[in-house]
Amino acid sequence: MAIKNGKEYTDRINRQQINIWYQGKTIKRPLSSHPAFNGLIKTQAEMYDMQHQKKIMEQMTFQSGTDGERYGLSFLAPRSKEDLVRRRIMMELWAEKHHGFLGRSPDYMNTTLMSLYTAAHLLQEYNPEYEDNLKKYYEYCRSQDITLSHAFIQPFASRLSELVDEVDDSITAKVIDRKENGIVVNGAFMMATQAATCDEILVFPSPLPSMLEPDNPYAFAFAVPNDLEGMTFICRESYSGSSHYDHPLSSRFEEMDAMVIFDHVFIPRNRIFYLGNEEIGERLFSEGNFHSHAGHQVLTRYIAKTEFLLGLISKLSDEQNIALEAVTMERISRILTMLENLKSLRLASEIMAEPDSKGYYVPAKKPLIAATMQYSSFYQEMLGMLQDISSSSLVMLPSETDFESDAGDFIRLYLKGQDTSACDRISLFRLTWELGVGPFGGRQKQFERFFFGNTRTLSSRMYNVYSLDKYKAMIDEFLHRGETH
Amino acid sequence: MAIKNGKEYTDRINRQQINIWYQGKTIKRPLSSHPAFNGLIKTQAEMYDMQHQKKIMEQMTFQSGTDGERYGLSFLAPRSKEDLVRRRIMMELWAEKHHGFLGRSPDYMNTTLMSLYTAAHLLQEYNPEYEDNLKKYYEYCRSQDITLSHAFIQPFASRLSELVDEVDDSITAKVIDRKENGIVVNGAFMMATQAATCDEILVFPSPLPSMLEPDNPYAFAFAVPNDLEGMTFICRESYSGSSHYDHPLSSRFEEMDAMVIFDHVFIPRNRIFYLGNEEIGERLFSEGNFHSHAGHQVLTRYIAKTEFLLGLISKLSDEQNIALEAVTMERISRILTMLENLKSLRLASEIMAEPDSKGYYVPAKKPLIAATMQYSSFYQEMLGMLQDISSSSLVMLPSETDFESDAGDFIRLYLKGQDTSACDRISLFRLTWELGVGPFGGRQKQFERFFFGNTRTLSSRMYNVYSLDKYKAMIDEFLHRGETH
Amino acid sequence: MAIKNGKEYTDRINRQQINIWYQGKTIKRPLSSHPAFNGLIKTQAEMYDMQHQKKIMEQMTFQSGTDGERYGLSFLAPRSKEDLVRRRIMMELWAEKHHGFLGRSPDYMNTTLMSLYTAAHLLQEYNPEYEDNLKKYYEYCRSQDITLSHAFIQPFASRLSELVDEVDDSITAKVIDRKENGIVVNGAFMMATQAATCDEILVFPSPLPSMLEPDNPYAFAFAVPNDLEGMTFICRESYSGSSHYDHPLSSRFEEMDAMVIFDHVFIPRNRIFYLGNEEIGERLFSEGNFHSHAGHQVLTRYIAKTEFLLGLISKLSDEQNIALEAVTMERISRILTMLENLKSLRLASEIMAEPDSKGYYVPAKKPLIAATMQYSSFYQEMLGMLQDISSSSLVMLPSETDFESDAGDFIRLYLKGQDTSACDRISLFRLTWELGVGPFGGRQKQFERFFFGNTRTLSSRMYNVYSLDKYKAMIDEFLHRGETH
Amino acid sequence: MAIKNGKEYTDRINRQQINIWYQGKTIKRPLSSHPAFNGLIKTQAEMYDMQHQKKIMEQMTFQSGTDGERYGLSFLAPRSKEDLVRRRIMMELWAEKHHGFLGRSPDYMNTTLMSLYTAAHLLQEYNPEYEDNLKKYYEYCRSQDITLSHAFIQPFASRLSELVDEVDDSITAKVIDRKENGIVVNGAFMMATQAATCDEILVFPSPLPSMLEPDNPYAFAFAVPNDLEGMTFICRESYSGSSHYDHPLSSRFEEMDAMVIFDHVFIPRNRIFYLGNEEIGERLFSEGNFHSHAGHQVLTRYIAKTEFLLGLISKLSDEQNIALEAVTMERISRILTMLENLKSLRLASEIMAEPDSKGYYVPAKKPLIAATMQYSSFYQEMLGMLQDISSSSLVMLPSETDFESDAGDFIRLYLKGQDTSACDRISLFRLTWELGVGPFGGRQKQFERFFFGNTRTLSSRMYNVYSLDKYKAMIDEFLHRGETH
Questions:
Q1: Is A327 part of the contact surface with chain B (CB cutoff 8 Å)?
Q2: Which of A154, A364, C139, D185 has CA atoms 20 to 30 A from the CA of A180?
Q3: Its pTM surpasses 0.90
Q4: What is the rounded distance in angstroms from the CA atom of residue C342 to the CA atom of residue C337?
Q5: Candidates B236, B257, B392; nearest CB to C190
Q6: E-assigned strand segments in A271-419
Q7: Can you list the domains of chain B with their CATH numbers?
Q8: Which chains touch A (3 or more CB pairs under 8 A)?
């Protein structure tokens, strides 16, 4: 079957022979048994299993009209508003599993690839081979249910160096050799989330300008398996705990980030999506409506996360015996307001969706950008609530082993809540701790703060999608109802 | 015709013999020639004329299936989602005229009356006469195109007094006599917006509890013409300017607020909608879905106002030569984000509308409350932008007469903009002054801050429309995926 | 005597024959009987009378060691920390009279002139005559107790034009002729606060660069009486009410702003403080420590205004019957926190004062800039509190004439407070209205927002007064306690 | 000598036989070699060594006039403003060592004890023995340079239970037996910071009311060594890293929090400071001016921390190549403004200090409360800056071992800054990570948010220290300058 299950997912990850470094050592054992990866792999395996659950298979997958095969629904290139709704229901189902904590849930990258695919035709203008490569790669991923990561952030120092010396000394990733059957690439990408727990990686740097067109060595995109000769993954330290009780989030959802280094890696010709012209990269993203398609997935994730925080903050208010205070009502209704915004923006993006030039339906972009513009501050506001409600209860938290020790009786006696056992009370604050104090939550906050760019980038994206002329004209018209001088 | 035009509206207002006080004197001359009222009356007359404009008559009015008569569309009790869309288009057309500055645009009160009408059937439980009165009054207003105001805020001191002494000394409005053909009412209402520029007034105090049920003298609702014996209107000072150039907003949109005093006023029996039981008032509002129907109108007004401010802030940024600065892009895209929120919330309220028990379609309440919860701070944020962009240009503003004086040449020379004449530049800052410095804008800000209640009231409204159980259950379920102790 | 009293102040203002335009007409009658000016003139006359009150004369004035004459203390060039404290006490006494609402209280301009005087010696490098002119002018103002305004903001369009054409077409104020006994100046200044209620005006444009040094025609400073040939004042509309009851603030404190136009005005040689070199202007301000001396006065004004708002917000909380609510306690203690900040910053500026190169004591600059950096947002936060507490009570306010009319009984009955008469209750909201809704308060808000420049200007002033090196070095040192690679 | 050095401090901690649990196990080995404690112990040992450094011994210690002995200066009960300045300089020296990250730096508890000591005389009213005990204990701590922690937060459930059943079932800490030579205490305290790295613990619960006066079993205070029979310490998980490079803050400053349980612990009579009457506890704190004396120390800590963040944010801005952008200037000058506030408030607290009834000098309380009211939001604002500046650079951080591994060359190449080595660049972000993402910083944020209570507690403290009458009277006086009705 084209849709894989959890075991297949796990086996493939374990089978890969990737060159991966963690805390100064290479990892030899299967990733699924390594404490920095096993929680996430287990969660993601369960997500792939959902594709095979009878009750929801229809919602998680689709049957191709062409070959009758059943594929993951996140690969579906939507042909109608109904398709968009189907896609959203599938994304909600997965988000109910990870509650919005997975930034690289498989549907994110599948959607990304699908969006590029819908614009593949434009590659023909440059080189028909590129179009063919991209389409075939999409079909390959869909039929093998490939788990993808992607890499695009370049080293900080590269942003300053590439103008100084175009070819030789720059550390910007570049094509250093072109051969008959492929190219040789050298360079590094800063932060590929989940890189190690995927089958392949899509490399798509933000195109940099060059004076060497049409042979700009910095302009390229390709996708390759993780275990090619010359590829190295270097991980940050893990934020994952091993006990579900102590670390309920990180023990399940910790997505490792890695630097990915290409040291003279040979990229086969059929995996190259474009070369030499930075304009193409921009067009693929904009004409493939990446920000709309991906934005639809991201907003679904935001909603799931907001609902999770709504539940948590409600529970905490009960636990702290302040459920009926005015301040609690104000907090909760503030979250409900955020939630209504987000849901309405998603609905609007679907209702106002329009077909692109090839008939693929694209969720309306404006409401989706509006959601992204706000979520970072919504999220921080909710974190502030968590911290206010929990106060000193976030600091002195015993662990699962403390409960089991000879000192456990003290804990059970002195840490109980008004109507809750110490075990239940502490489990709630443990969860809150992970969001508001611990490193998993710290990374999540930073991640949401910059998901689709900083304020300036987002503002400019919003600004450019609008025309202000009619609003200015309205003011002119209004003022000219009056006298003139 | 059932739809009136501007002249009919004006004539009726002028014909009324109301007892109205302004600055310590009673007003004798026709209101349409009084500087405190004429701008608003002219604007509203133009709005009524729109009902007769060929191009938009279909959108502004509807033909009754019952009697074939054509009525104002804001009276339409919606029977489908399409009806809600028709209602919204009508409200947009009027809002394009007043740009959201009229809080008591006729559609607001017409919608209020319509919402009560949809719940008229519940009055039968108490007294079939009430039901009949309310339905007939609705039909009367619809067929005569009556312009309504309403009164409901009681004196501050009344809120404290009514428990002390239920009947005698309290200053709370109350029924002091019941007669065969009507009742006698005594009391005052604090702030009836546009009371003097309407035909009639709907009096509907927030029901206060009493121990004297079912004869609670504080529980009642009725509607009467403005010129009954014993009614007195006392106006605040006017914020209206007379020159469109100097005061482009207040010269058109200044809605006078008035205290309305009932000094032993006899209310005819057929104009009474309920009596004696405070429960009825609450039910009329909640089962008539007042906050949903009115919220739909209010949100349409918010959107118009936001678009006006978007235009103004764009124009000002051009005028101040900062259109291309990053801070401008951030401001504008912040407004665009607000606008997308508001539009999506309105769309969601329509898409998710549902019929009430009698088959009237009700816009979904949650998105509408969400809009109200936010608009006050959105509005203030935009005012802050106006003030930041304008800086000292908001202070030294010459007037129309200065332009025309012998000093006019200096003004034309020294106050010109980079690409604009002094006349155009100053007209922009005049408009901004009215919003950000002058009393018209000051009242608007206060008005928006408390339109549907203060933060506590709004929060409680939002909180109560939701059930949090499923969100709490989600957290429980999540935590119980882990171990237990 | 060198210190004038209120009558002398008023008489001089009335005697001046200035060319002043208001609402398109020139004003002929004495300003002290004109409704746009009389309230302010009366207030300021009372302030000058304070100099002669036995009880505080010692605190309001000082006796010169040189000539034994008694002068206004705001002219005192401080020679010790004790002098700074004396200056502050005098400023507090005046501020208790105007509660911080006068931005151009006489001590502001007297302090400005004093600060320039302390740097007069640097003019000798350029032209000994300039030094002499400035010193003599300072002595003249001190001995005549001259009331000064100042002008420095140039037309908006001038900022863009002066580079295009240096001499001919620019509308920037400039020297257009140099004669043996003086110069001829042409140009306009945008916003001279209180210009019409002063004796003389100090003209000190921000120096613009020019390629024509040392004959930069845009670089100059001078002071002249208000009634020279060729000078024109154009006023904005007045925000002043005439009833103390209805408009308690504007009827006393409305400071008119005016454009001041110099149309080929001849400036006598002995009134010129420098010419032709923009560097001099900058040095006079920085070496005269203008921002420190003036900042000390401004901070004293901020404190008086904050205390007034503290009183008002406390009274309003009582009036609205919410004095004991948690939200009130939070509001009040927030204001107390602001007040402690401001007072401590002022204290620090005095305690850490240091002498300049000539032995004049200069209040420490850093705390004073810190105060200015914050006050705009402190002020707005307090306005927000006013609006929240007052809610709809700010809208429906009767006027003094309403109380006196036949409708007065209704007002007295229905507008009373819980423990206050309607007259007292409304007087409180009238005051609040002026701050939070009316145009006097609107201008004050805009004025405070930009008093010493916008955020960018203030930030840069703060940034440049500090050296960050030692703080960066601390981090380096901290990090190098660790290992190296 | 009465002042101990680092070795003595460490040896004493190691010698103690305390019953301490960490992650479900008791700790047997010396704490100074345990990874959860060794960093802090080393830092604190260095701080004690500072007392013996020739260059600063005079500033860190004082010579007693009574016995000629040299004591730690934080024990000094100040007799003059100069003493307060000496105390502050000592606190600054220690804070330069820990940069404000130690909430329980020894001077904090020494100051606490000193403040109680200054009010010891009031105990005589109740029982002369108590006064004697407190004075002797102060002298003992001073002469032995005892390192103290304190415990006062009771279990959450206790706050609800004590009213239900006064003596039997409540879990509130209480005296359960009174004997000739002491008392027996049972109960738990939630969060004693640094409890395990101190010699003794001061137990001083917030006094709860009881109907059993004068034998209220919940009212008591005492101090005991950490290793009495029946005492148990349960630690939270450690946030400490072992590498100074990877975790520059937590490897030095991680202060472990512990629950402290008293299971039928016998407290010797001479260590009891009061019993049975909750009024005494309140008086000791208020008449001992705890919030003033401790507030002076805390504010000094805030200033050190703010300076550290100023340095870090300046360095980061350089590193990210944005030092010259307007946004950077605004951020830095915002921090400078906070810093000026804090420093001026401290200065004011010293300048306006006054003697208590016994002649001990007390720093002025108002400026100190003002500092506490603001610091939580200042701190969060700075954290927000860290996160904004660092953006994705906070996520992908290699560790010290990665640098040393075979992958180190890649890291050195690709992670270098514009002008900095990868090692230096990453060390800066590692530090930022600890503050903005990791658990050490998460706890610090929560700690600062609630240091002296939540917003409501702080507001009430501020509110009660002021009298508003004179400010209200000012408004009355101002309004009565006008007419009356």
A1: no
A2: A154
A3: yes
A4: 9
A5: B392
A6: 272-276, 354-355, 361-362
A7: 1-288 (2.40.110.10), 289-472 (1.20.140.10)
A8: B, D
